[in-house]
Amino acid sequence: MTFIGKIPDVTLHDNEVPIDEAVVRSLLEAQCPEWTGLSLARAGAGTDNVMYRLGDDLLVRLPRTADKARSVRKEQEWLPRLAPLLACPIPEPVHAGTPTTAFPLSWSVYRWLDGNETQPDTVQDWATFGTDLAAFVRELHTIDLMGATHTGDLSWYRGGSLQACDQWISTCFEDCRTMIGEELDVDALKRLWDDALALPEPSVPHVWLHGDLKPTNLLVQEGALHAVIDFGGLSVGYPDAEHSTVWDLPHQARQAYWNALNLDDRTWARARAWAIAVGVSGISYYWQTYPAFVAECRARLQAIVADAAAR
């Protein structure tokens, strides 16, 4: 079984470092000679990383850009410390790759995690799935910060202030009007964004954040949540943005998640605003290069509009 969302082998960012099988082989030969005899096959890619399956039990993960390499180093440092404190399996780094002339960035090898992506045909009961996801979030958010703070590599915009993002998100709204037109109710989304901006800043402590709990990062086995992957967005900050990806899930999962965490209306409004921000910025940035991701963003935003109208 595979768990990695696949996208076309295209360039998504201006400053990408070329990655192919020959590059990966050269890294293994230089740093992991004990694995050079294992089979190697491209396993998939995301907006930040390219993945190769190594044998039956390993996964090589390489960042697309120098900026994304910081996330690789962050996972290498923190995932071994977080894993024992979480009931749900998460990626286990087994080799911290260092830069070479063939690939000038940090990279990783992980244990392979079996599972299917979260989809309508893989989840048995969406309400149970939403409850289980809430349990993972609650557990992650109660882990001691171990001295980590909202600084450096653990500082990400999604754990900070909505107000700090207003200028560039407003530009993305205008891009969506131009690109999509009347197929998306941009005015309704902008009103929800503005309403959240008017709310007071969160008054809760900072917590650990996964940062991107979208369906492709949630693995399913036997119809239930099995593992959580891709901690590239791992950060410390306010918890509101963590809840934003529930608009990628069916209503039953979203409602069960809300009920399980007993979220108040202000938290929900800010979470929804973060979902809007990621959706409109995704459409704006990937319009020409990644149509499948643009479609995901559109579906999320349409779900937000429909959900708000029904409340």
Outline the fold blueprint.
Layout: H1 21-31, E1 40-45, E2 49-54, E3 58-63, H2 66-82, E4 93-97, E5 107-111, E6 116-117, H3 126-141, H4 166-180, H5 186-197, E7 207-209, E8 218-221, E9 224-228, E10 235-237, H6 251-261, H7 265-286, H8 291-310
Antiparallel strand pairs: 1-2, 2-3, 3-5, 4-5, 6-8, 7-10, 8-9
Helix pairs in contact: 3-6, 4-7, 5-7, 7-8
Give an overview of the whole structure:
The chain has helices at 21-31, 66-82, 126-141, 166-180, 186-197, 251-261, 265-286, 291-310; strands at 40-45, 49-54, 58-63, 93-97, 107-111, 116-117, 207-209, 218-221, 224-228, 235-237. It has 311 residues and is of the alpha+beta class. The protein has two domains: 21-114, Phosphorylase Kinase, domain 1; 117-310, Aminoglycoside 3'-phosphotransferase, Chain: A, domain 2, CATH 3.90.1200. The strands form three sheets. The protein has a five-stranded antiparallel β-sheet with strand order 1-2-3-5-4, sandwiched between helices. Strands 6-8-9 form a three-stranded antiparallel β-sheet, covered by helices on one side. A two-stranded antiparallel ribbon has the order 7-10. β2 and β3 (58-63) form a beta hairpin. It is globular and about 55 Å long. The chain starts with 20 loop residues before the first helix and ends with a helix. The model is unreliable at 1-7 (pLDDT under 50).
